Queue: 2 jobs
Job 1
Amino acid sequence: MADEIVITTLAERPELLGKLHEFAGGWPEFMKQDPIGNTLMGRVPELFPEHCLLALEGDVLVAHGRSIPFVFPDEDRTELPAAGWDRALQWGVADHRKGRKPTVASALEISIAATHLGRGLSHDLLAAMRRNVKALGFDTLYAPVRPNGKDDASLPMTEYIQQFRADGLPVDPWLRVHVKAGAEIIKVAPASMVMAGSLDEWREWTGLPFDRTGEVIVPKALVPVHCDVDHNHAVYVEPNVWVRHDL
């Protein structure tokens, strides 16, 4: 019989930092090439351990979630940023460095082990994140959601988020998890993450030839990758979707 899954925080279980760093998230290789994420995401457990959720089955880490607090809105931040996930990371780390008192939080990630997919853990982690952020004194949780059900890269994200099921919920599984938890879809973050590299790097990341200038459809990419053979580079600009949870 499997152990009960217990959700705690890194602040409560700091000895689990190593397991968090070792956790395999199942991201495609090209999604690991965002320079802002590679620079700052590893600092979140260090700076905000109370915002790092750990789901444990016995001694095994089976899922985790991270959020980050920052100031919003203020005179320089009047709109949720087009640079979605990247900007949330930058705002949170910069505000911490400057000693600013945050007013909201944003989800950054909910990651579930492949062995535990399809067991409702995404709902459990999001509910735990909502409770945790509220307990930390915030009444708003934002999230730049990656709509992982989008499998037509040519379809604009603005059109995809207008697709609903007969019951009125979004067709996208991750957006549906958020809406069922009480979130409101706000708008698209058209440049939420940016991954750029040489054509050899893209060939290594994807196994595709990248031998023709134009749009390249890459499995698990939400929009096409822009390839420029003459200049030997390709760029992927990922759109996400801002949602807001009122807690």
Job 2
Amino acid sequence: MAHEYPETFARFYDLIYHHLRDSADSAFYLGEISSTKGKVLEIGTGTGRFFLTALNEGADIYGIDISPSMINVLRTKLDKKDFHRVSLQSIVDFSLDMEFDLIIAPFRVFMHLLEKDDQIKALNNVFRHLSKDGKFIFDVFVPNLNALINGISNQVDFDGEYEPGKRVRRIVSTSPDLHNQLINIDFLIEWDEGNETRQQHWLTPLRYFFRFELEHLIERSDFRNYKILGDFQGNGLIDKSVEFIVVCRK
């Protein structure tokens, strides 16, 4: 099963990922949501990077996440009348008494599912919650073989102020588990608090996928109609693609 985000990472999530990811995927997912007339479900809604914008723009959107720390941050931004829209559930076995025209699992949610059984259960559970002709979209990265084999050591991918005069840094290291097709990631957060610099590690594995593996996986599920895009502009796969964007239809 997926690993929950600790509270420190939830605290700084917005700051880090609005910087690292918004230019990559926000226009794509928010465009898909805005073009959907019916209900939308975001799986892995986190602290609301897409959810809040979509809700404020009038989308009939709901969200689930497995991390209490992330849901708690999101609820601080919501009116109480909208609390029913978010719940603590997993993609594998969530249950909602409604159908959705669009379900999304953005930014590597699917890569947190390490076992084949959970991957199939997740796909079939999403399928059951889609309305007729409904659409499911998720993304995973195209494996970089050099990075997989060699890993990454102490790479700073964010360094900025979270309050005036107070900085937060994120440092990433990875080690491969090629036999089990995993990337073991060590995220280190360093931040100024009071008169000291604090640190917290978060260790989490991600399951990476290759193209034909993804195709076989989807074809084992209840989905029969799908395509795999190579970028968030809607183009097909090419040698230089760094994203798999999987679009499944019921």
